[in-house]
TrEMBL record:
PROSITE patterns: FUMARATE_LYASES. Belongs to the lyase 1 family. Argininosuccinate lyase subfamily. Residues 23-318 form the Fumarate lyase N-terminal domain. GO terms for biological process: L-arginine biosynthetic process via ornithine. Gene3D superfamilies: Fumarase/aspartase (C-terminal domain), Fumarase/aspartase (Central domain), Fumarase/aspartase (N-terminal domain). Pfam families: ASL_C2, Lyase_1. Keywords: Lyase. InterPro entries: Arg_succ_lyase_C, Argininosuccinate_lyase, Fumarase/histidase_N, Fumarate_lyase_CS, Fumarate_lyase_fam, Fumarate_lyase_N, L-Aspartase-like. CDD domains: Argininosuccinate_lyase. This is Argininosuccinate lyase. GO terms for molecular function: argininosuccinate lyase activity. Residues 381-447 form the Argininosuccinate lyase C-terminal domain.
Length: 476
């Protein structure tokens, strides 16, 4: 990468516009290669950040004396004019604008004296420029995505508090296991989303680290004050090594990993809802706003939003894997392979924006069927409570587990639900059973008995809501 910039009116062989790197080239570039190489079609999304970074860099150059204050002001004025064109959709790309950096500098040298505009790239490479633009763009987008994620958590808290009295089956291996509260199930997913929020918060400082001033790979030869430049551009710190600075794409990979993990959690939540809202379960019903019908079967109400969320998770994991495969064999430092990561990064941000908002919408609008939840509870789910009854009578749990299992077998043999066994039936298995055993045949009491921190009792569930709400407030 060369540090010399030229205006857009000059000519290369064959009358082509000059490029930032064309000085040593004497042959025309293959038109297919031009198309193959360009990235303006997608990195134009970073137009604002590219201009903001250039404004900051011009100020840094002025502080070194490489350009005068008047030249800095002229560059700033020109860059703001270019930005206005982008914002009004008036910017016209031209042949040779292979990326956002080339396009902006070409246009700058058209709206101001090209001899002044040509000084902007002094000591700077597109290697440190693109890394800087990307970090500036990504930090802004991640701030928005975090708001969407936290909104999803807030919706979960609100519903958990309001609907805390509804009990439902809890499952392991998709088999009825124990009684839980609907709110407890919902907060189990919110707990995963909280970890996703923690990961995103932890990621932000590593995104917000400035590569600018690293040059192509070896550093800046003009004494640019990188700490002051970082402050101007609202970075928390500077990249400590210039070779690593232009080569590092960890922050993109970490973003994709965060997105993959978050969508994996959303996918599992979606799968639960797909199952629970099916006719066979019927415990929940998705809003028409997030469902579709069948072109053939009029009765169908398909949970398409949830299924798409589940599908997006797989695609996102593939995007992450793709970038890891791209980077794994690249030598130090910058390689053009890196360009392939930007499409995945943009897609990641767009996908997460849609998915987080859709998930919040699905959760906020879905309807519960509390009666169906209750009717889905089966007495066999109280087998553990039966074993715990005997524990309270002084027996070791390993022994009571076998006794409770024998009671389940007896109920199967007698073709009755577990709670229909008589006290005499139970005494035939263990003489520790007494008349008060009838008190355990209550799903509500079963849920309430799990009253430890993090359990499914009403008090515990509301405590979880309060803690999660406090977390959101403390980490604003």
């Amino acid at each position: 990468m060369t540090t010399h910039a030229t205006g857009g009116d000059g000519g290369a062989p064959g009358g082509e516009p000059k490029k930032l790197w064309g000085g040593a080239f004497s042959e025309k570039i293959d038109p297919l290669m031009e198309k193959f190489n360009e990235s303006l079609s997608f990195d134009r999304r970073m137009a604002l950040e590219d201009i903001e970074g250039s404004i900051g860099y011009a100020s840094a150059l002025a502080r070194t004396g490489i350009i005068t204050e008047e030249e800095r002001n002229e560059i700033h004025k020109g860059l703001k004019k270019v930005l206005e064109e982008w914002q009004s959709d008036a910017f016209v790309a031209k042949e040779g604008d292979e990326d956002i950096h080339t396009a902006n500098e070409r246009r700058l040298c058209e709206v101001i004296d090209s001899n002044i505009g040509g000084k902007l790239h002094t000591g700077r490479s597109r290697n440190d420029q693109v890394a800087t633009d990307t970090r500036m763009w990504l930090r802004k987008e991640l701030t928005v995505l975090r708001k969407y994620l936290r909104t999803l958590i807030e919706v979960a808290i609100d519903r958990a508090e309001k609907e805390v009295d509804h009990v439902m089956p809890g499952f392991t291996h998709l088999q009825s296991a124990q009684t839980v509260r609907f709110s407890h199930w919902l907060l189990s997913h919110a707990a995963a989303w909280q970890r996703d929020d923690m990961r995103l918060k932890d990621l932000m400082p590593r995104v917000n680290t400035m590569p600018l001033g690293s040059g192509a790979l070896a550093g800046n030869p003009f004494g640019v004050d990188r700490q002051l430049l970082a402050k101007d551009l609202n970075f928390e710190r500077v990249c400590p090594n210039s070779m690593d600075a232009v080569s590092d794409r960890d922050f993109v990979i970490e973003t994709m990993f965060w997105a993959s993990m978050t969508l994996m959690h959303i996918s599992r939540w979606s799968e639960d809802l797909i199952v629970y809202s099916s006719q066979q379960f019927g415990m929940m019903q998705m809003s028409d706003a997030y469902s579709t019908g069948s072109s053939l079967m009029p009765q169908k109400k398909n949970p398409d939003a949830l299924e798409l969320l589940r599908g997006k998770a797989g695609r996102q994991i593939g995007t992450l894997t793709g970038l890891l495969c791209i980077l794994k064999g690249t030598p130090t430092t910058y390689n053009k392979d890196f360009q392939e990561g930007w499409l995945g990064m943009f897609e990641t941000v767009d996908t997460m924006s849609d998915c987080l908002q859709i998930a919040a919408g699905c959760l906020a609008t879905m309807k519960l069927n509390p009666e169906k939840m209750k009717s889905s509870l089966v007495a066999e789910m109280l087998a553990t409570d039966l074993a715990e009854y005997l524990v309270r009578k002084g027996m070791p749990f390993r022994e009571t587990h076998h006794i409770s299992g024998a009671a389940v077998k007896l109920a199967v043999d007698k073709k009755v639900p577990l709670d229909q066994l008589t006290v005499d039936d139970l005494k035939s298995i263990c003489d520790k059973f007494e008349d008060d055993v009838a008190e355990i045949w209550s799903y509500e009491k079963s849920a309430e008995s799990r009253d430890t921190e993090g359990g499914t009792s009403r008090r515990s569930v509301l405590e979880q809501c309060a803690k999660l709400r406090a977390y959101l407030k403390e980490t604003e």
